[in-house]
Write a structure and sequence with these properties.
Elements: H1 3-24, H2 30-40, H3 47-58, H4 67-84, E1 94-95, E2 98-99, H5 101-105, H6 107-129, H7 133-146, H8 151-161, H9 169-194, H10 200-223, H11 234-238, H12 243-247, H13 249-267, H14 275-286
Antiparallel strand pairs: 1-2
Length: 289
């Protein structure tokens, strides 16, 4: 398998659908629409849509028919990034190598753009839910993954444990599992739900992959370069709770390697063609941005 070709196929088809979707947005005032479109279209890995589409493909479904759901997932992810960059949160001036939304449109409009994208995602999922019970279940799962018991809980904990010298690995794991992990698990579980498959093994894989992604993010903040697309060294400067803060860079690299191996092992019980996901683990572990 040529992993890059497959990843690019999913990502490019998603990008085409996203641009078409953005072109049809009719929201007023114009500044609201511009700020929403800006953050949706400034690029990125598109990991979450790719996870969703590739999982549908693994289950033998026509993944090109589910691009609206992939867009809804990305709307939620993008809203979280807009809010994460705000001065009251991580206070980052750059995202994906370009000015953050609040640097382009002002803090108030950035908040509203994030709010609008979250609500837009739910509106899209409501529409998809009319297609059947499996789509309703997927919509509910996405809502829970993004909400007070999921990603938002992780963001809250991340803020709470910043500059907290008593924070432990258990608390770090909570941040990993919720702030990052929930929205990486969700696309995989949602695909399984739409396929009518119960896959606890795939869910466990998603949880481990989410931890690996965030752990790698912590490492890149310490040793990345300008290709990272956001301000380097902010975790250390802000005294964030990270794996590097707890154990140092070398031990964190070892933890990442062990976690990558765990991801691969978790794929073994899945009786499907999981080669794309095996290669995706290497992609996440070795990424530079």
């Amino acid at each position: 398998m040529d992993f890059q070709v497959r990843y690019r196929e999913y990502a490019e088809e998603f990008e085409r659908a996203l641009l078409e979707f953005c072109d049809k947005m009719q929201f007023l005032p114009e500044r609201l629409k511009e700020s929403m479109r800006y953050s949706l279209t400034i690029g990125g890995k598109r990991l979450r849509p790719v996870l969703f589409l590739s999982a549908l493909d693994m289950f033998g479904l026509d993944w090109k028919k589910e691009l609206n759901i992939a867009i809804a997932i990305e709307c939620i992810h993008t809203y979280s990034l807009i809010h994460d960059d705000l001065p009251a949160m991580d206070n980052d001036d750059f995202r994906r190598g370009k000015p953050s939304n609040h640097k382009m449109f002002g803090e108030a409009h950035a908040i509203l753009a994030g709010d609008a994208l979250l609500n837009l995602a739910y509106s899209m999922m409501f529409a998809e839910s009319a297609r059947g019970e499996e789509y309703l279940r997927a919509a509910r799962y996405l809502c829970d993954a993004a909400g007070a018991g999921g990603m938002i809980a992780g963001q809250s904990a991340d803020l709470l444990y910043t500059a907290n010298q008593d924070a432990s690995e258990e608390e770090l794991r909570f941040v990993y599992d919720h702030k990052t992990g929930k929205l990486i698990v969700a696309p995989l579980v949602m695909a399984a739900m739409i396929a009518g498959v119960h896959s606890l093994d795939l869910e466990k894989f998603g949880e481990a992959l989410g931890s690996l992604f965030q752990l790698t993010d912590d490492i890149l903040d310490e040793k990345g370069d300008e290709t990272l697309g956001k301000t380097l060294g902010k975790d250390k400067a802000s005294d964030k709770l990270t794996i590097v803060k707890l154990y140092g860079l070398n031990a964190s690299e070892l933890q990442a390697d062990l976690l990558a191996e765990r991801c691969r092992l978790l794929l073994e019980p899945i009786e499907r063609d999981t080669e794309f996901f095996r290669l995706l683990v290497d992609y996440v572990r070795m990424r530079k941005k």
